[in-house]
Protein backbone atom coordinates (compact mmCIF):
# COMPACT_ATOMS: atom_id res chain seq x y z
CA UNK A 1 0.00 0.00 0.00
CA UNK A 2 1.42 3.36 -1.07
CA UNK A 3 1.41 6.25 1.34
CA UNK A 4 1.15 9.92 0.59
CA UNK A 5 2.71 12.60 2.67
CA UNK A 6 0.23 15.28 3.56
CA UNK A 7 0.48 18.68 5.14
CA UNK A 8 -1.37 19.44 8.34
CA UNK A 9 -4.61 20.13 6.48
CA UNK A 10 -4.40 16.69 5.00
CA UNK A 11 -3.39 17.94 1.54
CA UNK A 12 -1.12 15.90 -0.65
CA UNK A 13 2.36 17.25 -0.23
CA UNK A 14 4.00 15.11 -2.87
CA UNK A 15 3.67 14.65 -6.57
CA UNK A 16 4.14 11.04 -7.31
CA UNK A 17 7.24 9.59 -8.83
CA UNK A 18 7.58 8.18 -12.30
CA UNK A 19 6.99 4.48 -11.62
CA UNK A 20 4.00 4.74 -9.35
CA UNK A 21 0.94 3.21 -10.90
CA UNK A 22 -0.58 2.27 -7.56
CA UNK A 23 -3.54 4.23 -6.28
CA UNK A 24 -2.84 6.85 -3.71
CA UNK A 25 -3.60 5.49 -0.30
CA UNK A 26 -4.36 6.56 3.21
CA UNK A 27 -1.75 8.36 5.23
CA UNK A 28 -1.32 7.14 8.76
CA UNK A 29 -3.11 10.14 10.18
CA UNK A 30 -6.58 10.77 11.56
CA UNK A 31 -9.19 12.92 9.90
CA UNK A 32 -7.38 13.76 6.72
CA UNK A 33 -9.22 13.88 3.46
CA UNK A 34 -7.52 10.69 2.35
CA UNK A 35 -8.48 9.03 5.64
CA UNK A 36 -12.14 9.75 5.39
CA UNK A 37 -12.60 9.31 1.69
CA UNK A 38 -10.01 6.91 0.41
CA UNK A 39 -9.44 4.89 3.54
CA UNK A 40 -12.96 3.67 3.90
CA UNK A 41 -13.92 3.37 0.30
CA UNK A 42 -10.67 2.53 -1.47
CA UNK A 43 -11.10 -1.20 -1.84
CA UNK A 44 -14.82 -0.93 -2.53
CA UNK A 45 -14.09 1.57 -5.31
CA UNK A 46 -11.41 -0.73 -6.68
CA UNK A 47 -14.05 -3.42 -7.12
CA UNK A 48 -16.18 -1.20 -9.37
CA UNK A 49 -16.21 -1.63 -13.13
CA UNK A 50 -16.40 2.13 -13.64
CA UNK A 51 -13.46 4.54 -13.66
CA UNK A 52 -13.29 6.58 -10.46
CA UNK A 53 -10.99 9.49 -9.64
CA UNK A 54 -10.92 11.45 -6.40
CA UNK A 55 -9.39 14.88 -6.01
CA UNK A 56 -8.98 16.84 -2.79
CA UNK A 57 -10.30 20.39 -2.46
CA UNK A 58 -7.02 21.71 -3.86
CA UNK A 59 -7.74 19.59 -6.93
CA UNK A 60 -4.86 17.17 -6.45
CA UNK A 61 -5.65 13.63 -7.58
CA UNK A 62 -5.68 11.58 -4.37
CA UNK A 63 -7.11 8.33 -5.63
CA UNK A 64 -7.74 6.37 -8.79
CA UNK A 65 -9.50 3.05 -8.61
CA UNK A 66 -8.19 -0.01 -10.40
CA UNK A 67 -10.24 0.51 -13.54
CA UNK A 68 -9.19 4.17 -13.78
CA UNK A 69 -5.53 3.17 -13.45
CA UNK A 70 -5.90 0.55 -16.17
CA UNK A 71 -7.57 2.99 -18.56
CA UNK A 72 -4.99 5.69 -17.85
CA UNK A 73 -2.25 3.14 -18.54
CA UNK A 74 -3.86 2.38 -21.90
CA UNK A 75 -3.92 6.13 -22.60
CA UNK A 76 -0.26 6.62 -21.80
CA UNK A 77 0.53 7.80 -25.33
CA UNK A 78 -2.24 10.42 -25.26
CA UNK A 79 -1.28 11.56 -21.76
CA UNK A 80 2.32 12.01 -22.78
CA UNK A 81 1.67 13.80 -26.03
CA UNK A 82 -1.15 16.00 -24.76
CA UNK A 83 -0.13 16.68 -21.18
CA UNK A 84 3.55 15.62 -20.96
CA UNK A 85 2.75 13.18 -18.17
CA UNK A 86 2.64 9.38 -17.84
CA UNK A 87 -0.23 7.43 -16.30
CA UNK A 88 2.12 6.52 -13.47
CA UNK A 89 2.56 10.19 -12.60
CA UNK A 90 -1.13 10.99 -12.36
CA UNK A 91 -1.53 10.41 -8.63
CA UNK A 92 -0.85 13.64 -6.73
CA UNK A 93 -0.98 15.72 -9.91
CA UNK A 94 -3.12 18.81 -9.83
CA UNK A 95 -5.98 18.44 -12.29
CA UNK A 96 -5.41 22.01 -13.53
CA UNK A 97 -2.72 20.35 -15.57
CA UNK A 98 -5.40 18.79 -17.80
CA UNK A 99 -7.79 21.65 -18.12
CA UNK A 100 -5.90 23.95 -20.49
CA UNK A 101 -7.56 27.27 -21.19
CA UNK A 102 -10.54 26.30 -19.03
CA UNK A 103 -8.58 26.01 -15.77
CA UNK A 104 -10.03 29.14 -14.15
CA UNK A 105 -13.61 28.29 -15.07
CA UNK A 106 -13.33 24.63 -13.99
CA UNK A 107 -11.60 25.67 -10.71
CA UNK A 108 -14.34 28.16 -9.95
CA UNK A 109 -17.06 25.58 -10.56
CA UNK A 110 -15.32 22.91 -8.49
CA UNK A 111 -14.74 25.29 -5.56
CA UNK A 112 -18.38 25.19 -4.50
CA UNK A 113 -20.43 22.02 -4.06
CA UNK A 114 -23.52 23.99 -5.05
CA UNK A 115 -22.20 23.71 -8.62
CA UNK A 116 -22.08 19.92 -8.41
CA UNK A 117 -22.87 17.46 -9.84
CA UNK A 118 -21.53 18.32 -13.27
CA UNK A 119 -22.34 16.09 -16.21
CA UNK A 120 -20.52 16.69 -19.44
CA UNK A 121 -19.00 15.07 -22.50
CA UNK A 122 -15.29 15.63 -22.94
CA UNK A 123 -12.77 14.44 -25.49
CA UNK A 124 -9.49 12.80 -24.55
CA UNK A 125 -7.53 11.68 -27.60
CA UNK A 126 -9.92 9.55 -29.63
CA UNK A 127 -12.14 8.94 -26.64
CA UNK A 128 -15.39 10.65 -25.90
CA UNK A 129 -15.99 10.55 -22.17
CA UNK A 130 -19.25 10.95 -20.35
CA UNK A 131 -17.95 12.79 -17.30
CA UNK A 132 -19.78 12.76 -14.00
CA UNK A 133 -18.42 14.99 -11.23
CA UNK A 134 -19.81 14.77 -7.69
CA UNK A 135 -19.07 16.30 -4.32
CA UNK A 136 -17.92 14.01 -1.49
CA UNK A 137 -18.90 15.13 2.01
CA UNK A 138 -17.84 13.92 5.43
CA UNK A 139 -20.21 12.82 8.22
CA UNK A 140 -21.03 16.39 9.19
CA UNK A 141 -21.63 17.53 5.64
CA UNK A 142 -18.32 19.31 4.95
CA UNK A 143 -17.38 19.28 1.30
CA UNK A 144 -14.12 17.29 1.51
CA UNK A 145 -13.34 15.94 -1.92
CA UNK A 146 -14.48 15.65 -5.50
CA UNK A 147 -15.29 12.36 -7.19
CA UNK A 148 -15.24 11.87 -10.90
CA UNK A 149 -16.33 8.88 -12.83
CA UNK A 150 -16.40 8.63 -16.55
CA UNK A 151 -17.45 6.19 -19.20
CA UNK A 152 -16.18 5.88 -22.72
CA UNK A 153 -19.02 6.60 -25.13
CA UNK A 154 -17.31 6.94 -28.54
CA UNK A 155 -18.81 3.62 -29.72
CA UNK A 156 -22.24 4.57 -28.38
CA UNK A 157 -21.98 7.94 -30.16
CA UNK A 158 -20.96 6.20 -33.38
CA UNK A 159 -23.96 3.86 -33.20
CA UNK A 160 -26.25 6.79 -32.42
CA UNK A 161 -24.88 8.62 -35.42
CA UNK A 162 -25.42 5.61 -37.69
CA UNK A 163 -28.95 5.13 -36.40
CA UNK A 164 -29.76 8.77 -36.99
CA UNK A 165 -28.24 8.62 -40.48
CA UNK A 166 -30.34 5.54 -41.31
CA UNK A 167 -33.38 7.29 -39.88
CA UNK A 168 -32.74 10.35 -41.97
CA UNK A 169 -32.29 8.23 -45.13
CA UNK A 170 -35.68 6.63 -44.47
CA UNK A 171 -37.24 9.98 -43.70
CA UNK A 172 -36.12 11.36 -47.02
CA UNK A 173 -36.60 8.24 -49.13
CA UNK A 174 -39.11 8.63 -52.01
CA UNK A 175 -40.45 5.07 -51.39
CA UNK A 176 -43.05 4.05 -48.83
CA UNK A 177 -41.59 2.33 -45.79
CA UNK A 178 -43.62 0.99 -42.89
CA UNK A 179 -42.05 -0.92 -40.03
CA UNK A 180 -43.85 -3.16 -37.59
CA UNK A 181 -42.35 -4.83 -34.53
CA UNK A 182 -42.45 -8.58 -33.88
CA UNK A 183 -45.92 -8.18 -32.37
CA UNK A 184 -47.08 -6.62 -35.67
CA UNK A 185 -47.57 -3.21 -34.15
CA UNK A 186 -46.66 -0.42 -36.57
CA UNK A 187 -43.71 1.46 -35.11
CA UNK A 188 -42.58 3.60 -37.99
CA UNK A 189 -43.96 5.12 -41.18
CA UNK A 190 -41.80 7.34 -43.30
CA UNK A 191 -43.21 10.64 -44.62
CA UNK A 192 -43.66 9.12 -48.11
CA UNK A 193 -45.90 6.40 -46.59
CA UNK A 194 -47.92 8.89 -44.64
CA UNK A 195 -48.48 10.93 -47.77
CA UNK A 196 -49.56 7.87 -49.77
CA UNK A 197 -51.83 6.63 -46.99
CA UNK A 198 -53.33 10.08 -46.63
CA UNK A 199 -54.28 9.99 -50.30
CA UNK A 200 -56.20 6.70 -49.78
CA UNK A 201 -57.46 7.56 -46.33
CA UNK A 202 -61.09 7.02 -47.37
CA UNK A 203 -60.28 3.35 -47.96
CA UNK A 204 -58.56 2.82 -44.61
CA UNK A 205 -60.06 1.74 -41.27
CA UNK A 206 -58.32 4.66 -39.50
CA UNK A 207 -56.95 8.07 -40.45
CA UNK A 208 -53.37 8.09 -41.77
CA UNK A 209 -52.13 10.01 -38.74
CA UNK A 210 -53.64 7.34 -36.45
CA UNK A 211 -51.81 4.38 -38.00
CA UNK A 212 -48.66 4.61 -35.89
CA UNK A 213 -49.09 2.26 -32.92
CA UNK A 214 -51.88 0.21 -34.56
CA UNK A 215 -51.63 -3.51 -35.26
CA UNK A 216 -51.27 -4.33 -38.96
CA UNK A 217 -54.25 -6.64 -38.42
CA UNK A 218 -56.62 -3.70 -38.83
CA UNK A 219 -55.76 -3.64 -42.54
CA UNK A 220 -56.24 -7.32 -43.20
CA UNK A 221 -59.50 -9.10 -43.68
CA UNK A 222 -58.14 -12.42 -42.46
CA UNK A 223 -56.35 -10.37 -39.95
CA UNK A 224 -54.50 -12.77 -37.70
CA UNK A 225 -53.39 -14.98 -40.54
CA UNK A 226 -51.92 -12.04 -42.45
CA UNK A 227 -50.06 -10.99 -39.36
CA UNK A 228 -48.84 -14.51 -38.88
CA UNK A 229 -47.85 -14.66 -42.53
CA UNK A 230 -45.69 -11.62 -42.02
CA UNK A 231 -43.46 -13.73 -39.84
CA UNK A 232 -43.05 -16.35 -42.57
CA UNK A 233 -40.26 -15.97 -45.08
CA UNK A 234 -42.16 -17.98 -47.73
CA UNK A 235 -44.77 -15.23 -47.78
CA UNK A 236 -42.28 -12.58 -48.73
CA UNK A 237 -43.13 -12.57 -52.46
CA UNK A 238 -46.81 -12.02 -51.70
CA UNK A 239 -45.85 -9.40 -49.17
CA UNK A 240 -43.73 -7.56 -51.70
CA UNK A 241 -46.69 -7.43 -54.07
CA UNK A 242 -48.96 -6.13 -51.38
CA UNK A 243 -46.38 -3.50 -50.48
CA UNK A 244 -46.35 -2.39 -54.07
CA UNK A 245 -50.12 -1.97 -53.97
CA UNK A 246 -50.14 -0.01 -50.72
C1 LIG B 1 -10.95 14.20 -9.89
C2 LIG B 1 -10.38 14.58 -11.00
C3 LIG B 1 -11.00 15.49 -12.03
C4 LIG B 1 -12.03 16.38 -11.92
C5 LIG B 1 -12.84 16.73 -10.68
C6 LIG B 1 -12.24 16.95 -13.22
C7 LIG B 1 -13.22 17.86 -13.53
C8 LIG B 1 -13.48 18.35 -14.79
C9 LIG B 1 -14.54 19.27 -15.13
C10 LIG B 1 -15.57 19.83 -14.15
C11 LIG B 1 -14.46 19.52 -16.44
C12 LIG B 1 -15.35 20.47 -17.26
C13 LIG B 1 -16.45 19.71 -17.90
C14 LIG B 1 -17.31 20.60 -18.79
O1 LIG B 1 -18.00 21.46 -18.26
O2 LIG B 1 -17.26 20.45 -20.01
C15 LIG B 1 -13.34 18.77 -16.95
C16 LIG B 1 -12.92 18.80 -18.27
C17 LIG B 1 -11.86 18.07 -18.73
N1 LIG B 1 -11.05 17.22 -18.03
FE1 LIG B 1 -11.14 16.89 -16.04
N2 LIG B 1 -11.33 16.42 -14.10
C18 LIG B 1 -10.57 15.53 -13.39
C19 LIG B 1 -9.53 14.77 -13.88
C20 LIG B 1 -9.11 14.80 -15.18
C21 LIG B 1 -8.04 13.98 -15.68
C22 LIG B 1 -7.23 12.99 -14.85
C23 LIG B 1 -7.92 14.28 -17.00
C24 LIG B 1 -6.97 13.76 -18.03
C25 LIG B 1 -6.22 12.71 -17.88
C26 LIG B 1 -8.90 15.28 -17.31
C27 LIG B 1 -9.11 15.81 -18.55
C28 LIG B 1 -10.10 16.69 -18.87
C29 LIG B 1 -10.29 17.25 -20.19
C30 LIG B 1 -9.47 16.93 -21.45
C31 LIG B 1 -11.39 18.10 -20.11
C32 LIG B 1 -12.00 18.95 -21.25
C33 LIG B 1 -11.35 20.28 -21.18
C34 LIG B 1 -11.82 21.20 -22.32
O3 LIG B 1 -13.00 21.22 -22.61
O4 LIG B 1 -10.96 21.91 -22.86
N3 LIG B 1 -9.61 15.57 -16.18
N4 LIG B 1 -12.77 18.05 -15.94
C1 LIG C 1 -45.50 -3.42 -41.72
C2 LIG C 1 -46.78 -3.39 -42.05
C3 LIG C 1 -47.53 -4.51 -42.77
C4 LIG C 1 -47.22 -5.82 -42.91
C5 LIG C 1 -45.99 -6.57 -42.33
C6 LIG C 1 -48.24 -6.42 -43.71
C7 LIG C 1 -48.26 -7.74 -44.09
C8 LIG C 1 -49.19 -8.31 -44.96
C9 LIG C 1 -49.20 -9.67 -45.42
C10 LIG C 1 -48.16 -10.73 -45.04
C11 LIG C 1 -50.24 -9.82 -46.21
C12 LIG C 1 -50.70 -11.10 -46.91
C13 LIG C 1 -50.23 -11.03 -48.34
C14 LIG C 1 -50.87 -12.10 -49.21
O1 LIG C 1 -51.04 -13.22 -48.75
O2 LIG C 1 -51.19 -11.77 -50.36
C15 LIG C 1 -50.90 -8.57 -46.30
C16 LIG C 1 -52.04 -8.33 -47.05
C17 LIG C 1 -52.65 -7.11 -47.17
N1 LIG C 1 -52.26 -5.93 -46.58
FE1 LIG C 1 -50.72 -5.72 -45.32
N2 LIG C 1 -49.12 -5.47 -44.06
C18 LIG C 1 -48.73 -4.29 -43.50
C19 LIG C 1 -49.36 -3.07 -43.60
C20 LIG C 1 -50.49 -2.82 -44.34
C21 LIG C 1 -51.12 -1.54 -44.52
C22 LIG C 1 -50.61 -0.22 -43.86
C23 LIG C 1 -52.17 -1.70 -45.33
C24 LIG C 1 -53.15 -0.68 -45.84
C25 LIG C 1 -52.79 0.44 -46.36
C26 LIG C 1 -52.21 -3.10 -45.70
C27 LIG C 1 -53.12 -3.64 -46.53
C28 LIG C 1 -53.16 -4.96 -46.92
C29 LIG C 1 -54.18 -5.52 -47.80
C30 LIG C 1 -55.35 -4.76 -48.39
C31 LIG C 1 -53.84 -6.86 -47.92
C32 LIG C 1 -54.63 -7.90 -48.68
C33 LIG C 1 -55.56 -8.46 -47.62
C34 LIG C 1 -56.46 -9.53 -48.10
O3 LIG C 1 -56.25 -10.06 -49.19
O4 LIG C 1 -57.38 -9.82 -47.32
N3 LIG C 1 -51.17 -3.75 -45.07
N4 LIG C 1 -50.23 -7.65 -45.53
Question: How does this structure look, described?
Answer:
By secondary structure, this protein is an alpha+beta fold. It folds into 2 domains: 121 residues, 2-Layer Sandwich (Beta-Lactamase); 73 residues, 2-Layer Sandwich (Beta-Lactamase). 35% of the residues lie in helices and 18% in strands. The protein has 8 helices and 7 strands. The strands form 2 sheets. A 5-stranded antiparallel beta sheet has the order 2-1-5-4-3. Strands 6-7 form a two-stranded antiparallel sheet. The radius of gyration is 28 Å and the shape is elongated. The N terminus and C terminus are likely disordered. Bound molecules: protoporphyrin IX containing FE (HEM) (2 copies). The site of one protoporphyrin IX containing FE has 18 residues, from β6, α7 and α8.
Percentage of residues in helical conformation: 25-40%
Q: How would a textbook summarize the main sheet?
A: 5 strands, antiparallel
CATH architecture name of the largest domain: 2-Layer Sandwich
Please state how the strands of the largest beta sheet are arranged side by side.
Answer: 2-1-5-4-3
Low-confidence stretches are 1-31, 234-246
Rg, nearest Å: 28 Å
Bound molecules: protoporphyrin IX containing FE
Strand content is: 15-25%
Q: In CATH, what is the class of the largest domain?
A: Alpha Beta
- The best one-word shape is elongated
Task: Provide the fold topology.
Layout: H1 33-46, E1 51-56, E2 61-64, H2 66-74, H3 76-83, H4 103-110, E3 118-124, E4 127-137, E5 143-152, H5 154-172, E6 178-180, E7 186-189, H6 191-199, H7 223-230, H8 236-245
Antiparallel strand pairs: 1-2, 1-5, 3-4, 4-5, 6-7
